[in-house]
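As described in the Methods, two query proteins were run sequentially through the folding procedure within a single session, without resetting any intermediate state between them. The first query and its resulting structure tokens are shown here.
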Amino acid sequence: MIYVTNTPNNAGVAIYGDYLDFKALYDALHTVVGDEEEEPALSGAGLRVLAVCYDLRHALMGHRDIEFVDNGMDADKMRQMAVIASSKNVYLKINVLWPEMLFVMVALNDFVKLYARKQAKTTYDIMLNRRNIWDDSIAQVRMLQAAVAKCLKSVVPAGVYSRMMGSLNKEYIVCYNYATQYVDLLNCRFLKMSKEKRLKNLSKMAKLLTEPGSEYLDLRNEILQAAQEYNCPIEDIRISGVEYPDHIDW
């Protein structure tokens, strides 16, 4: 089962799961995001979700951290069952920065909505959600989102959590033609904050990501102009002054 915790220095979240959990989540994220050609306006948001998939895949390959987690097997149970077994399960682990994770949460809402529409055969199906209620890919995505939400609820006050849920769960599609370079800007800004200040700014990060202000709109206009000048997708434009540290003290 996927579970999520806040990292020690509040830089982001640690996502845990065993091999099968990570494999199922990896497959589900790819399924829900779909092909870039299907929704080119969501290609930037899709790349951020696939960046999480990248870490999941490397965890599956043994290139990320692991944790040993109690599995409830003790000496008495082994004796009763006449088996010798480990009392620990091996859980894989990846880290994701908080602003990045918040954006991925929103992007996944958008991708689930579009995926559900594609799966539905009629408008009536969409209204009843009857073709998607037991869809395995959607269930896996919602499980990740629920685990992140549970973690978030544990680190911010109740009122802040309620406001953040309002920001992160819009009825409309948030990420169409989103200039995801802004996520990098917020990631780097977040990392420069103190451990204590990071938690106090989570609600602000959620609002900045989902309610475009002048800073985002100005940045997006500059990126659009540069993309037009160089005749390339907006995802290919890099903004100056945004550099991730070589090492993140999670």
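Immediately afterward, the second query was submitted; its sequence and tokens are:
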Amino acid sequence: MISGDALLFALFLVAVINVSRYVSTLRTLLAVMRECDPLLYQQVDGPGFFTSHGNVSKQIRLFHYIRGQQYQNHHDPVFMQKCVKVRKLFVLASTYLMVFFVSIFVVAYLGI
């Protein structure tokens, strides 16, 4: 039988790896966006996206842009591929984080 600590550590490790993949892909999306669509880059607070003084309402605009799949009408195929990848990795990373947090409660409740 696998111990609860080993299970939590494995799930945490997988979650951290997927979140880092998501953030890395988001950074490359912003770099591609800076070249192919400077207006959108400024609208989503591109230069200050990963800073502590970044504008959250502008960052949420990028979330809604990708969630609504508004990138499908874009002229640059590389940008569209990056948006699809960011969307898939966001779903994957958020799912793994939810599984990790649920497993914390399950392990604590069952005492594994």
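The chain has four helices and no strands. We note this only descriptively and draw no conclusion about the first query from it.
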